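ENTRY TYPE: protein
WANTED: fold as tokens:
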Amino acid sequence: EARSRTTPPPSYSEARILAVESWMCESAGFSPGSCRTEAEQMFDLWLSERHAAASRLLFDGAATAIAEARRLHPDAAVAAITNGRGDPLAMPDLAALFDFTISAESARIYPNR
């Protein structure tokens, strides 16, 4: 079960992995011993493609605009703040333009999740 009253709720990533793990073990015929590992591998594949798709679908001129803002304000820190798993540091066209990211998945963002 993805949520329990005795433990904090899982992160969104963990909830996704638990859902895939449950489906694999209960409906798809995977052996119970391999479901977790397979679910984690599927999640990693999904996350990699999620970042690749975000790179492909980036608005025209977005990277150029961020680069120009950095040029005009060289002392400013540029960060991405997201409630999801999007990470510009994992996208080649954007990685050099950001100093750091903060995600809802980051440690201590939602300590009582």
